[in-house]
Amino acid sequence: MTTFVKAVTLSANGVALVPLEVVHEAGLKAAAADGELWKIRVTSVPEPGATADYIADALRGRDAGDRFAFAVIEQATGNVLGTTSYHDILPA
């Protein structure tokens, strides 16, 4: 499939959504370290040992053109707060 999603950074209200990359792994682990968020059923948070696989899966989805994942960054500190994705992207 041809990739039709362009890399974009979105920012407002003190946060920025930047394209998720491998460099965000440590920040994502730190963001999830305050609790066992991966046990919550209404969200998708990888266990600390699975963060690299989570990112790799997101990047495969981006390469396939059907997912675009962002790291959520606090602009004041540069800290990674989490991640969010557009899933199941289909051409119009």
Question: What attributes does this structure have?
Answer:
92 residues, alpha+beta, 4-stranded antiparallel β-sheet, globular
Structural class: alpha+beta
Q: Give the SSE string.
A: EEHHEE
What is the count of helical runs? 2
Distance between the termini: 14 Å
Tell me the fraction of residues in β-strands, as a range. 25-35%
Helix content: 10-25%
Low-confidence stretches: none
**Rg from Cα:** 13 Å
Return the average pLDDT rounded to an integer. Answer: 85
Give the oligomer, counting copies of the same chain as homo and different chains as hetero: single chain
For the biggest β-sheet, the strand order reads: 1-2-3-4
Described by strand count, sense and barrel closure, the largest sheet is:
4 strands, antiparallel
Number of strands: 4
Task: Tell me, briefly, the overall form.
Answer: globular
Question: What would you say this structure looks like, in words?
Answer:
This protein is of the alpha+beta class and 92 residues long. The chain has a domain at 1-6 and 49-92. Helices cover 24% and strands 26% of the residues. The protein has two helices and four strands; from the N terminus they run E-E-H-H-E-E. A four-stranded antiparallel sheet has the order 1-2-3-4. It is globular and about 40 Å long. The mean pLDDT is 85.
